[in-house]
Amino acid sequence: MNYYEHTLIARQDISPSQIKQIQEKYSKIIENNDGNILKFESWGLMHMSYLIKKNKKGNYLHFKIEGSGKTIKELEKTEKIDKNLLRYLTVKVKKLDLETDYFKKNEEENKNKY
């Protein structure tokens, strides 16, 4: 089994319930194709460097997956036709960092700023 980091960018105008549906949809695809989700992070709505399909922002979803090439192939095949997604990226890694949350806002830092 290989390790992958998989990031999705969903449209900016979808609701939180639709984001949850997208997460569940792709989680099921991963699990049905002998994959295992080791960690899921929702990074939230963030600005993009450039317009993608006339969108300035996107909702970022990040999966850390253990699986095979077949798992990723099925995942990307479904993502190509999903109208709610702007982009996706899969990166094969040797080792996953499951402890660090890079986009989680530190509440103490925010208190010190104000």
The gist of it:
The chain is an alpha+beta fold. Helices cover 32% and strands 42% of the residues. It is built from 3 helices and 4 strands.
Walk me through what this model shows.
By secondary structure, this protein is an alpha+beta fold. It has one domain: Alpha-Beta Plaits (2-Layer Sandwich), CATH 3.30.70.60. The protein contains three helices and four strands. It has a four-stranded antiparallel beta sheet with strand order 2-3-1-4, covered by helices on one side. A hairpin with a 2-residue loop joins strand 2 (36-52) and strand 3.
Q: Alpha-carbon distance between the termini?
A: 47 Å
- Which regions are unreliable across 5 or more consecutive residues at pLDDT < 50? none
Task: Quote the average pLDDT.
Answer: 86
Taking strands numbered 1, 2, ... along the chain, how are they ordered across the largest sheet? 2-3-1-4
CATH top level?
Alpha Beta
Which homologous superfamily in CATH is the superfamily?
A: Ribosomal protein S6/Translation elongation factor EF1B
Give the domain tally. 1
Please give a handful of descriptors for the protein shown.
four-stranded antiparallel β-sheet, globular, 114 residues, single chain, Alpha-Beta Plaits, alpha+beta
How is this fold's topology laid out?
Blueprint: E1 2-10, H1 16-32, E2 36-52, E3 55-67, H2 69-80, E4 85-93, H3 107-113
